[in-house]
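[Automated response] Your request has been received and processed.

Submitted sequence:
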Amino acid sequence: MINIYLDNAATTEIDPEAIKVISFFQQLNTGNASSLHKRGVAAAKEIERARQIIAAKINASFKDLFFTSGGTESNNFAIKGIAFANREKGRHLITSKIEHPSVIATMEWLETQGFIVTYLPVDKEGFINPADVEKAINKKTILVSIMHANSEIGTIEPIQEIGMICKKRDIYFHTDACQSFTKVELNVKKQNVDIATLNAHKIHGPKGIGAIYIRKGVKIEPLLHGGGQENNLRSGTYNTGGIVGFGKAVEISNIHDSKRMSELRDYFIHNIQNVVDDVILNGAKKERLCNNINLIFKNVNGKKIFKKLNERSIFISTGSACSSAKLTPSHVLIAIGIKSQIAHEAVRISLSKWTTKEELDIVIQNIKKIIGEERNA
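Generated structure:
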């Protein structure tokens, strides 16, 4: 029976090794990591071990990594926290038109609070021009927030160059690295990143846990107050199981998995274009996430492809997970110049470290059949 999951940009299956450590702390060590008894101390030690593993992965000090509930909270924390802590310096923020909804919606909300936001355009492959960032900066600019890689079209942005521009102008630079983390090098020192958003469930870790890197010296206001956890920057009882599961997922991630996914990605793109006519690849040709495939099959609605594959227990997406249920076209596809009607024809296929060539061959044959049926109907 077919059961092929190719919606890994939305979420991934938890690795069994992560499940083991999560289960231990959920069942056998129920201590609150803020408590001073043995169980609490044991939990706290494992949290700090996970913190060190994750921080080392991005070349950061473990003292600069703080746990949150996930990417959306981290993005809100980064943007609102910088905005309100630095508003005496200025109220101008810069982002792009292809950011995750948690960034765009936060920016839009800040506009209702008296802040001014510049939304930068991208080219037809989804790249942000660093020169546009520099041009948009003015004396009132306090933050630039540009994602590391796009979740819908897979384009990897030139964050090192953007980070250098921000550093020279003494402006904070935040990057949402939820999709890129462990797949693409993220070196916060080399790439001049002041704040970075990370999460676990995109890398075979648990849902409901994320992290934010905040460089020492960054002036930021916390979103949550009360408990004093995470050096008073993120109050709330520690999700010990989630944190250690996150740490394990990072610990077992490796470049070989990314390389293999890149090879499978290219294999799929090449073969689907060989057997189906009029297929458009959205996003970058080279600087692209190893697991991302975003395609338009001309004259076939993406939701029809999604529905028929779903009936066959082949699971993909028609856009980003946060907006796939909406009838409006993807804001990312519109931003790269695709007309609204054609944007509805897009589907996103995202691989995992467990995806096989045999599975992709099955998907290619099923898509070929579906496209033939739809175009001949």
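Summary generated for your ticket: The chain has a mean pLDDT of 94. The chain has two domains: 4-12+254-376, 16-252.
If you did not submit this request, please reply to this message.
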